[in-house]
Amino acid sequence: MSASPDSPPQPRRFSPPGALSGTIRVPGDKSISHRSLMLGALAVGETRVTGLLEGEDVLATAAAMRQMGATITREDDGTWSIHGVGVGGLLQPAAPLDMGNSGTSTRLLMGLVASHAITATFVGDASLSKRPMRRVIDPLSQIGAEFEASEGGTLPLTLRGISPAVPITYRLPVASAQVKSAVLLAGLNTAGTTTVIEPVPTRDHSERMLKGFGADLSVEEKDGERIITLKGEAELKPQTITVPGDPSSAAFFVVAALLVPGSDVLIENVGLNPTRAGLFGVLRQMGGSIEEVNAREVGGEPVADLRVRHSMLRGIAVDPAVAPSMIDEFPVLFVAAALAEGTTTTTGLDELRVKESDRLTAMAEALTLAGAKFEEHEDGLTIHGTGGDPLPGTGEGAAVVSHLDHRIAMSMAVAGLASRNGVEIDDVRPIATSFPNFIALMESLAG
Ligand SMILES: O=C(O)C1=C[C@@H](OP(=O)(O)O)[C@@H](O)[C@H](O)C1
Ligand SMILES: C=C(OP(=O)(O)O)C(=O)O
Fold first, then answer.
1. Ligand 2: which residue has its CA nearest to atom 8?
2. Biased composition, Pro residues: where in the chain (predicted)?
3. Which amino acid residue places its CA nearest to atom 10 of ligand 1?
4. If you measure from the C-alpha of residue 312 to the centroid of ligand 1, how many angstroms do you get, rounded to a whole number?
5. Which residue spans within 129-283 are E strands per DSSP?
6. 176 is in an annotated binding site
């Protein structure tokens, strides 16, 4: 699978498989994989990474870091080796940085470039070129970087970094780990103290990993807010990193096992950082049988194996406060809710409208086509579940539209497993951005 514009769309039908059973291991965490490459590229010496996610988004980050001077190689056993250039040592890229479909690559790399005296042009695919970049342009302009971008603040854009940059204190206007990380990464090569105030906590991989690489970073909690302080002109020390499995990828198989009658599945090595694991708590609240076994720590992150068994789910009102800890998991939660008993309400999800697609409208359209019942609101969906009956599925000649969004494609693949007639998806190429072996793992569980 490749989302390269040169290859034609790949439609595919996902049909009810019978019970799912067996043991699988999902690929490495996407957020941690991006950050391993970026921080490794800024350390002096060799960083070694095992379990790196080899999806298109992460490979776009690797290519960009190479364009800016890092030496990054994959060894035959799958270990990645990164020789960094040192903080302040990024080189002027000779060509535009192609970010593909990846918001994380774009926003975090904009932070890195902003405090180096280099100029970079960022380009991306049709989905990424619609996504808002003003949220990083604003704080990075405050440090002194300059931008040439369209009125709407979208890609393609050119960023002229500055060194020395001005250290800032920035209060996040949106709950976004990407914006937080962009400001912190810019702070690495900025003399003085950079502070980010986070009114709503988001995934904390940047903080954990910056500390792990030896940056002087501290986090204080005050009046329910997180205040993150980073001392600049850092010297990062190379690390040996084991990337835990991605909970956002495990989510699809957790929901599939809950929905398909008779299923009993073990998903090994799932990262359970509390800023990421919100979905599993919500599914348990709905009555889902998800057991954590062999809880341990991998690469400084909590990890466990998840045993998931088919369960009758009940609709609930999902607390909007958990949204940041499961922000990428709502599309597949909507699928779970579509088969629950009673009504599930979700609110506070405006951010879903600016992901790879507008995930509220895309899921509303896709679930309608598959026969689910719900209402779309400004900031969420209300879903009326079937009470455990399979969804009808898509009819002859009808295909759900994935809008270049891997999570829409994978969520509707799960809906197909839990349907009577199967679900046809217009294009499964986007799945390769975050989960290249998704279909192979699904087939292995279906026996
Ligand atoms: O920092 C990260 O690695 C990510 C942050 C989130 O985006 P936002 O910062 O836009 O919420 C998430 O949706 C994305 O998949 C990965
Ligand atoms: C939103 C996502 O990723 P990104 O912002 O990196 O494109 C995602 O993986 O669901």
1. 328
2. 1-11
3. 176
4. 31
5. 146-148, 157-160, 169-171, 193-198, 217-222, 225-231, 240-242, 264-271
6. yes
Packing angle, helices 247-259 and 330-338, rounded to 10:
10
Task: Please name the CATH architecture into which domain 12-28+244-445 falls.
Answer: Alpha-beta prism (3.65)
Residue 16 burial class via C-beta count within 10 angstroms: exposed 0-12, middle 13-18, buried 19 and up: middle
Give yes or no on whether 12-28+244-445 and 30-241 have one common fold. yes
- pLDDT for position 146: 98
Query: What spacing in Å lies between the alpha carbon of 178 and ligand 1's midpoint?
Result: 5
Structural domain boundaries in the chain: 12-28+244-445, 30-241
Q: Which ligand is nearest to the CA of 276?
A: 1
Which amino acid residue places its CA nearest to atom 13 of ligand 1? 328
Burial class (CB in 10 A: 0-12, 13-18, 19+), 395: exposed
30-241: CATH topology? UDP-n-acetylglucosamine1-carboxyvinyl-transferase; Chain (3.65.10)
Separation CA 207–CA 273 (nearest Å): 13
pLDDT digits (tens, 9 = 90+) for 267-319: 999 999 999 999 999 999 999 999 999 999 998 899 999 999 999 999 999 99
Would residue 388 be called left, alpha or beta, if left means φ above 0 and alpha means ψ between -120 and 50 degrees? Answer: left
